[in-house]
């Protein structure tokens, strides 16, 4: 499962994956260009989508470790249900936030270049 962290499209991709999984329509998440040739079973696709959703949980403590992911994919562990993804809250920054950001962005850098020219 691939998406750009922090992007709107990544967020909606996660919501779509979660919704399709919940409705038992995991195969719709597979790219149509490869779905006809897909040798993976519906159960394998469902497992991969579920593990992908677990790996992208909002809270880091809710995400499985890599050894746990390997165990989940190999069938050694039962997969817990992922929590629904949350949409980021978009808000306009306050005047105080803007002022603080502007102050943090200001810096003073100086550099001295000296060129020594030697005569012939």
Automatic annotation (TrEMBL):
<protein>
    <recommendedName>
        <fullName>S-locus receptor kinase C-terminal domain-containing protein</fullName>
    </recommendedName>
</protein>
<keyword id="KW-0067">ATP-binding</keyword>
<dbReference type="GO" id="GO:0016301">
    <property type="term" value="F:kinase activity"/>
</dbReference>
<dbReference type="GO" id="GO:0005524">
    <property type="term" value="F:ATP binding"/>
</dbReference>
<feature type="region of interest" description="Disordered">
    <location>
        <begin position="76"/>
        <end position="95"/>
    </location>
</feature>
<dbReference type="InterPro" id="IPR052059">
    <property type="entry name" value="CR_Ser/Thr_kinase"/>
</dbReference>
<keyword id="KW-0418">Kinase</keyword>
<keyword id="KW-0547">Nucleotide-binding</keyword>
<keyword id="KW-0808">Transferase</keyword>
